[in-house]
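Study the following:
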Amino acid sequence: MFVARSIAADHKDLIHDVSFDFHGRRMATCSSDQSVKVWDKSESGDWHCTASWKTHSGSVWRVTWAHPEFGQVLASCSFDRTAAVWEEIVGESNDKLRGQSHWVKRTTLVDSRTSVTDVKFAPKHMGLMLATCSADGIVRIYEAPDVMNLSQWSLQHEVSCKLSCSCISWNPSSSRAHPSMIAVGSDDGSPNAMAKVQIFEYNENTRKELTSSGGPTKFEIQVVAQFDNHNSQVWRVSWNITGTVLASSGDDGCVRLWKANYMDNWKCTGILKGNGSPVSGSSQQGNANPSLGSNTPNLQHSLNGSSASR
């Protein structure tokens, strides 16, 4: 049985995101007060704030943990149009903070010209990669070439979703049967906006060098599904642990579940209201627009990777 516990977070403004680490023993929160707080769970089950610092010059929308294999690493994104990577370090012997841990900024990613609305680390098997999305509809994927040097990140992929982006989610599956996938949700409020949820896939094996000498690397990222069933702004997308089902939630008060059939056509397999009750007729197939491969041609985005460090 779940028991609700409240925590006096002590943020000075709205809290926008809460994120647990891999083991569920640490938690990070972020707020419009421009700060991030880190919480550690005691043996008694109580949460204690162990770090708090100003991270951005605007509201902080999201905070997320990297896999612990890469150390204690956080990423945050903000209305100030940047994303930042933070690392927890222990003070050196000649440091005033000897034996104490504190968080330091390793890099600031400044490619976006609008508010950066979400940030997520890729699954561990993909290496130390980070995806961001922004209000201008651009998804950017960065990679740290050297996991021991988090101050150097290179922009690997950049793709336009053609709608304002609100959220992203990496597919956690490490199966070789399918290329890596990332889902993107849109908060575009215009009535004519379609495809509020999109799924992209890419495969590193499709990397092709441009013929021009010294030119950037060209990637092909394919849209495998896009849906407009919410008919409203979509605020969160999330995969199940096996990467076979995608959940999306929106202003229509519903959570919709999406799954691919044996032909890799994505369909809505269930709809839940905000109170958890099923919606009448939720067993019907959703209007996956398109269920690519049947009614519409493959959509591909030609991407120019950048080898420059950010």
Notes: DSSP finds no helices and 22 strands in the chain.
